[in-house]
Amino acid sequence: MNRTALHVGARRHEDGLLAWALIAVTLALFAPAMGFDFVGLDDMPYVSENPMTRDGFSAESLKWAWTTNLLGYWAPLLWMSFMLDGTLFGPEPWGFHATNVLLHALNAALVFWMLRRWTGRRWAAFWAALLWAVHPLRVESVAWITERKDVLSGLFFFLCLLAYGRAQAGGRPSRGWTWTAAGCLALGLLVKPVLVTVPFVLLLLDVWPLGRVRWEWADIRARGFRLVMEKWPFWLLALALGAVSWFANFGPGRLATPQPPLLLRLGLLPRNYLAYLWQTVWPADLSVLYNRPQFTVEMLVLALVVLGLLTAGAWGCRQRHPAGLVGWLWFLGMLVPSIGFIWVGTTEGAGDRFTYLPHVGLTVVLAGAAVRARPGGWFHVLAAVLTLALAWGAWRQLEIWRNSEALFARAVKVADRNGRAWGSLGVWQASEGREAEAQVNLLRSLTLKPRHNEANFNLANLYLQQGRTTDALRHYRIAAEDTPDHVKALNNVAWLLAADPACSPERATEALALARRAAALADPPDASVLDTLGLALAANGDFAGAVLAAQEAVAQVPADAAGRTLRQRIQARLDAYGQGQMWRE
Questions:
Q1: In this structure, what is the dihedral angle of CA atoms 554, 558, 564, 568, given to the nearest 10 degrees?
Q2: Are 26 and 108 in contact (CB under 8 A)?
Q3: What radius of gyration do the chain's Cα atoms show?
Q4: Running DSSP on this structure, what letter comes out for residue 37?
Q5: N vs C: which end of the chain shows fewer Cβ within 10 Å?
């Protein structure tokens, strides 16, 4: 074997050792998450209370994965990844957490391999990838089971970029590697639609590191159109799968979060970018929920000045430091889907998890700058100190994800004006039997955010437990009005109306309409919802229909202790319907 081959083999061996070191450090840092619980913020409907994902693969669950838009989210591969965990590890949270941690560790290694190829410098790539992996803003994506979206879509994103780089490596595009990259993009889009920005990132890679076009207007005009058009498989995938996800999330009647005026949202965009940059530099006071951003002219001017100066600086250095402009535009562009054009769910324009892939752009800037500076030993000392500081911050941030109590206590501390934060704390307190505290915090939540707030539904649950059915009905109605596809709210309104001994014909008719809507929306079919449908049919005198609904409800009852109790209750009602008798509470 000649010296060149030995040298190449040695380099690959050293690169492999550094990649394994990255994986080991990342696993060690985030390993405590494997002992964490499910948290009461989407983990329940996604996994812990969802038999389709929690209980592993089945013919029914696979069909469900491709047809459901749970909580307005269409993500077949995400659901199947949870099913795989359920099959391999069972329903306990540790297995779901372990997969998140492992995926993030693999992603850290992939970031290293990308930067190693692009910069040609081993240690610059290693430290940049490590800083990205241990940054406190990564904690939300890794420690929150629901955010499997980030780490799994990130895996396919990095594989897509690596395959695209291989496709262009020989000077003439490789069709096989190009289609491999497109396949990785398709898989990623089946997890999270934020990857619609990938074609834009590929165009940036054509500038650097691939050198297929220069940062010169003449060169861009000469080659730009061809580079855009050759990526037609990527544009097509982004358009097609992005449209499906868009309709699932934002189709007619699906967007429950009220949208502020468009001009206000546009005015807040520079502020949101600036907030993410500040959290990058100073990751303190992080939380899963934040106060709603407030618009001020001063903040808009400051944000525009800072962003403008950074963009102008990156553009001015584009010839000497092309990675700087590529990485900066990567950061700006990949944040577009999450920067606040549309407010949905917990975001209202902010979320630590949204930085998972955009931050890789800033990592590119850092790695490129390190290569250009040709640093000496001081660079390794500085990088190690910075890594330790960020890892310590991530370690502390991990603790708030241990359980719902820690998560929501932190949320109300950081986001004291966020109605959802107080409502989530109230829900957890109610689940622990602390009803007085729960009621206070749920009411505080509604004071901050009277409508389109899940606190209405949870306060109704609390009132129902206290026997205050009139108050419960009122808040269930508000929840159903604010979210027309809220199955549980619709179901509970229908039940309270139909089970009332003084139920009038008008109320019985309303109960039946609501029960039918809840049954149509329930995915998968739910025993309690079908039970309510039977009660509403009986209240309208349709005892034959009530019998059929109750029988179907019995068939859907889960085979556990709670299921046995529910089956007995439904059977009692079924016996009454069979005798042409109404059942009342």
A1: -20
A2: yes
A3: 27
A4: P
A5: N
Look up tokens 């009454």; give the residue: 576
Tokens, residue 525: 């079919």
Q: What is the DSSP letter of 48?
A: I
Prior bond of 558 cis (ω within 30°): no
For residue 200, give the nearest of 227, 173, 167 by alpha carbon.
227
How far apart are alpha carbons 461 and 569 in whole angstroms? 20
Q: Which of 46, 88, 87 is nearest to 64 (CA)?
A: 46
CA–CA dist 512, 539 (Å, integer)? 8
**DSSP code of residue 47:** I
pLDDT digits (tens, 9 = 90+) for 28-75: 999 999 999 999 989 999 999 999 999 999 999 999 999 988 877 899
Residue 248 vs residues 68, 85, 251, 524: alpha-carbon distances, Å? 9, 25, 6, 17
Residue 364 one-letter amino acid: V
Q: Count CB-CB contacts under 10 A for residue 244.
A: 14
Taking residue 176's Cβ as centre, other Cβ atoms within 10 Å add up to 11
The sign one gets for the Cα dihedral 404, 70, 481, 543 is: negative
Q: Which residue has the tokens 């790539």?
A: 125
What are the tens digits of pLDDT across the range 326-360? 999 999 999 998 888 777 655 555 789 999 999 99
CATH class of 405-485: mainly alpha
Q: Are 287 and 275 in contact (CB under 8 A)?
A: no
